[in-house]
Amino acid sequence: MSVHEVEVKTIDGNPTKLNEFAGKAVLVVNVASKCGLTPQYEGLQKLHESYADKGFSVLGFPCNQFAGQEPGSNEEIVEFCSTNFSVSFPLFDKIEVNGDGRHPLYERLTETPDPDGKTGDVLWNFEKFLVAPDGKVVARFRPMTQPDDEELVKAIEDVLP
């Protein structure tokens, strides 16, 4: 099932659909500014820069569901990401990834098994979902998987258009 028809809002509140990224491989990540894993922004930015010209993008979805580690407004999130990590990949409106308020995008993403075959709730900030250019979710990497992890990088390279 393609995620391209899912409606989302950009970080500045404009509605859009992920079909804007049709034909590209994307890595969807729930991000947070006050988490022990926040330094992963640096690696995500490097991934984005390394593969952008090959049809790849990181997509960041701020989420405050894990110990309140993304309390800022969208404007504060943009400022934090820009100032501290020179983030240039697209960021979107803050969403919920688990529970009754789970965003429709994450309803689809969480059906994808991780390398151990487990589906369901996102465990923490910086869980990563790889989406192929056709909009199918092809891989899931749990939060502790670093952006430069060999398996993650290989999975990205394998689905580049």
Overview of this structure, please?
The chain starts with 6 loop residues before the first strand and ends with a helix. A four-stranded mixed beta sheet has the order 4-3-5-6, covered by helices on one side. The chain has a two-stranded antiparallel ribbon with strand order 1-2. Strand 1 (7-9) and strand 2 form a beta hairpin. It has a single domain (7-159), classed as Glutaredoxin, CATH 3.40.30. The protein has helices at residues 40-51, 74-85, 104-109, 150-159; strands at residues 7-9, 15-17, 25-31, 56-62, 128-131, 137-141. With 161 residues, it is α+β, with helices and mostly antiparallel strands. It contains four helices and six strands, in the order E-E-E-H-E-H-H-E-E-H.
Percent of residues in β-strands? 15-25%
The helix content, as a percent range, equals: 10-25%
Named CATH topology? Glutaredoxin
Taken from the alpha-carbon principal axes, the silhouette is globular
How many domains make up the coordinates? 1
How are the SSEs placed, and which strands pair?
Layout: E1 7-9, E2 15-17, E3 25-31, H1 40-51, E4 56-62, H2 74-85, H3 104-109, E5 128-131, E6 137-141, H4 150-159
Parallel strand pairs: 3-4
Antiparallel strand pairs: 1-2, 3-5, 5-6
